[in-house]
Amino acid sequence: IYTYILVAKMIKDEGGSSNEDCVYVKLVSAEGYEMFVQRDIAIAGSTTMKAMLEGQFRESEDNVIRFPDISGIVLEKVVQYLHYKVKHSKSSGRLPEFPIQPEIALELCVAANYLQC
């Protein structure tokens, strides 16, 4: 079902370097679906994820963020939007439409508000 950027592998430095050097962060949905997103994209796209990954939180040590209130389909759309946002952040012209299915629109708005993205 979830086919967007989900086949990435977490890359950790075995030499004991900080988790800030980790390239990917794992996002876990309410149902337990795991998705990987580049750490720099998560930080650039979401104020909430940035705080979790750069602050004194467990997520900054584990590079895993669990979202018990966000469904897999909505979290997948959030990951798509984070990529869209970073890709078009410096665009000066008209942005391409970001498609959202009406049946997830409300839940997506709630998630976007929580994630500040």
Description of the structure:
InterPro entries: ELC1, SKP1-like, SKP1/BTB/POZ_sf, Skp1_comp_POZ. This is Elongin-C. It comes from Eucampia antarctica. Its main location: nucleus. There is one protein chain. With 117 residues, the protein is an alpha+beta fold. The protein has one domain (19-88, 97-115): 2-Layer Sandwich (Potassium Channel Kv1.1, Chain A). The chain has helices at residues 39-45, 47-54, 58-62, 72-87, 105-115, and strands at residues 24-28, 34-38, 64-66. A hairpin with a 5-residue loop joins strand 1 (24-28) and strand 2. Helix 1 packs across helix 2 (47-54), helix 1 packs across helix 4 and helix 4 packs across helix 5. It is globular, with a radius of gyration of 14 Å. 21% of the residues are buried.
Q: What does this entry show, briefly?
A:
Belongs to the SKP1 family. With 117 residues, the protein is α+β, with helices and mostly antiparallel strands.
Salient structural properties:
117 residues; globular; alpha+beta; Potassium Channel Kv1.1, Chain A; 5 helices
**Rg estimate, integer Å:** 14 Å
Sheet having the most strands: 3 strands, mixed
The CATH class is identified as Alpha Beta
CATH 2nd-level architecture: 2-Layer Sandwich
Count helical runs.
5
**Helix vs. strand class:** alpha+beta
Give me the side-by-side strand order of the main sheet: 2-1-3
The first-to-last residue Cα distance is: 24 Å
